[in-house]
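Much of our argument rests on the idea that a fold can be written as discrete symbols. In the encoding step, the backbone of a single protein was reduced to a row of integers, each denoting a local shape. This step matters because it turns folding into a mapping between discrete strings. For completeness, the protein is quoted in full, as a sequence line and a line of structure tokens:
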Amino acid sequence: MESWQIQKAKNHFSELIRKALEKGPQAITRHGRPEAVLLSMRDYKKLMETQKPLTEFFHKSPLRGLDIDLERNKDSGREIEL
């Protein structure tokens, strides 16, 4: 990922957008530390569509419908000497 100082990013904003479209996400730094990332709309939408609710994940699980014993063993643990 290419890195841009914030002042350079402000002065060359059109170029920054073009590079985000052509080459992918562009990092923006302040005082040498990464502070932000500029993404193309395509990359942003791809990133957002991968976030699905946890319930949907479980609903689509290949283990759905299997009879799995999820009951916890109720033993008292092991004895230790103090």
Observations:
- The helical segments are 6-11, 13-23, 41-49, 54-59.
- The chain has one domain: 2-59.
- The longest strand covers residues 33-38.
